[in-house]
Specification:
Elements (H helix, E strand, L loop, with lengths): L2 H21 L11 E3 L4 H4 L20 E5 L3 E6 L4 E7 L4 E2 L17 E5 L2 E7 L3 E9 L5 E10 L5 E3 L2 E8 L17 E6 L2 E6 H6 L2 E4 L4 E5 L3 E7 L3 E10 L2 E8 L2 E3 L4 E12 L2 H6 L14 H17 L3 H32 L1 H10 L4 H14 L8 H20 L21 E7 L3 E4 L1 H19 L4 H22 L4 H26 L1
Length: 521
């Protein structure tokens, strides 16, 4: 890969970070035993990463009672305050979700509900002189879906007409520790609404500024982080879906039920379903309603989806994600190789012309228009296209962006091991230091170091083939700057992405050597 390509990709990576910073954008089940516990006991009963959070200020006078319901897929921590799912711990990923407070009904979120059970269902109820609310959660043992039925009963002596806001889930940045969400990962937080097949997406900062709503009957409303998501899709009639700030650092999304006229003693039942789990498009597609579309890869989504399809196909043959990343790197390299080889050959010809170009620059140093004309004429006579190196560069930029998103967000890579790497969705962490150091933190990641060495060798190889002292000086500077720049950018990237870049760099070295040998014959 020549100097122009490195510059373009370096610029692409910087633009990528700048852009992300700018955006910083019913199944029956068998009866199960549900054990009610006190808040102080919750940490001992649930996994340690599923810790208790403090109730909201308005509910601090209410004694919060928590209990855990276990299924094959997750541990659900319920709270009597608001009758909600407070936290979710996914067993397959040993992960406490960033999303909290599932299935909350606005205006009733601070009321003390009473817990009961019936054939495996978790039922919360609240009653006063004006109303009765019953919330019934049904959880299938081997599914990430939770069915929720809410019954509103009018206990007044008058007709009651109103609609209800039902929350999907909330994100509270003040309660998210740095261990749970690295600063760069905040850019992956997104809320979305699907209505009539069209998806409206909003970054977290945008939702914090103002509420956004879509009228009509939405397909679903959801919130996602880097790998996981929560989606609410109504099974009863609705009138709108919304995303809204509920505090300085807290946002939520949900739906608005249709307005109903309730006579005294009459109830209104609303049914919906919650999906709480990984952004696995295969699982989401099986549930219908286009739920898989919550997993978007950005501007180059089509390319990312294609790369993900190829990765999954390769994994069906070779069940190791690290090997599959190397194979897709090889495939991309081979597809682009004819153009890359042509570009490198053209660059080699341009290098041989550098002494003559230097003479022209000295001869016409005060005549820039004449100089350009003479240089272009020299290129024409020698059948050299100075722009031939641009096409491979432009093709690699969208592929790089698409692959970046694919490898950064693909849930299959989470927990996948390769050689010494325990998790391809994280850094390779060859060693963990007892103390944190500047820039690198407390991790020694070997892959970025290998990448720096490989890129240094590649730049050095390119510098040897330079034809003029001016170009040699430029390449000498590039030989040191580019590897360090990329090493700094990739040091805290997921190891899956770094494996791809190291592999592509090695293939580029081999290609450069071959081109140089052919040119010397």
């Amino acid at each position: 890969m020549e100097k122009r390509t490195f510059l373009a990709l370096a610029l692409s990576v910087l633009i990528l970070f700048a852009w992300r910073a700018y955006l910083a954008k019913t199944q029956p089940i068998e009866q199960q035993v549900v054990t009610q516990i006190k808040p102080s006991e919750f940490e001992d009963v649930a996994p340690k990463s599923l810790s208790q959070e403090k109730p909201v200020a308005a509910a601090q006078q209410i004694a919060e009672q928590l209990f855990v319901k276990e299924t094959d897929k997750f541990s659900l921590a319920f709270s009597n305050i608001g009758g909600k799912i407070k936290q979710v711990f996914l067993k397959d990923y040993t992960k406490k979700l960033l999303e909290i407070d599932f299935g909350v009904v606005e205006d009733f979120e601070n009321l003390p509900f009473v817990l009961s059970q019936n054939k495996g269902r978790v039922i919360y109820s609240y009653e006063d002189q004006d109303k009765k609310i019953i919330k019934s959660f049904t959880v299938a043992d081997a599914s990430y879906a939770v069915d929720l039925e809410i019954s509103f009963v009018n206990l007044t002596g008058n007709n009651l007409e109103r609609s209800y806001r039902i929350y999907n889930a909330s994100l509270d940045l003040e309660q998210i520790s740095s261990d749970d969400l690295a600063p760069r990962d905040k850019n992956f937080l997104e809320l979305s609404i699907s209505s009539a097949g069209k998806i409206q997406r909003r970054s977290l900062p945008n939702v914090l500024k103002k509420e956004f709503s879509v009228t009509g009957h939405p397909d679903w409303v959801g919130v996602r982080d880097k790998y996981f998501c929560s989606i609410l899709y109504p099974l009863s009639s609705t009138s709108a879906a919304f995303m809204q700030p509920t505090g300085k650092q807290r946002v939520t999304s949900g739906i608005l039920t249709k307005s109903n006229l309730l006579s005294p003693g009459v109830s209104y039942n609303f049914i919906c379903r919650l999906y709480i789990g990984p952004q696995d498009t295969k699982i989401l597609a099986e549930l219908g309603r286009g739920l898989e579309n919550i997993a978007s890869f950005g501007t180059f989504d089509i390319i990312s989806q294609g790369l993900l399809f190829i990765l999954r196909f390769l994994h069906s043959i070779i069940p190791n994600w690290g090997v599959c990343i190397i194979l897709i790197c090889l495939l991309i390299f081979l597809v682009l190789y004819p153009l890359t080889a042509k570009s490198l050959a053209s660059m080699k010809k341009m290098q041989t012309l550098q002494p003559e170009i230097e003479k022209l620059r000295n001869q016409y140093k005060d005549q820039p228009q004449k100089l350009n004309k003479e240089i272009m004429e020299m290129y024409r006579q020698n059948k050299v296209n100075p722009f031939s190196g641009c096409l491979p560069m432009f093709l690699q930029i969208p592929v790089f962006f698409a692959l970046y998103q694919t490898l950064m967000r693909t849930i299959e890579l989470k927990g996948a091991s390769f050689l010494w790497i325990k998790d391809l969705s994280e850094t390779d962490k060859l060693f963990i230091l007892p103390k944190s150091l500047p820039v690198i933190g407390n991790e020694i990641n070997i892959l970025p170091i290998v990448m720096i060495v490989a890129m240094f060798l590649q730049q050095k190889l390119s510098m040897k083939s330079a034809g003029s002292s001016t170009m040699q000086e430029q390449q000498k500077m590039m030989m040191f700057m580019m590897p360090v720049l990329f090493g700094f950018l990739f040091y805290h990237f997921p190891s899956g992405l770094t494996i791809y870049w190291v592999s592509y760099t090695i293939l580029s070295i081999l290609s450069q050597r071959r081109i140089n040998r052919l040119a010397e014959k």
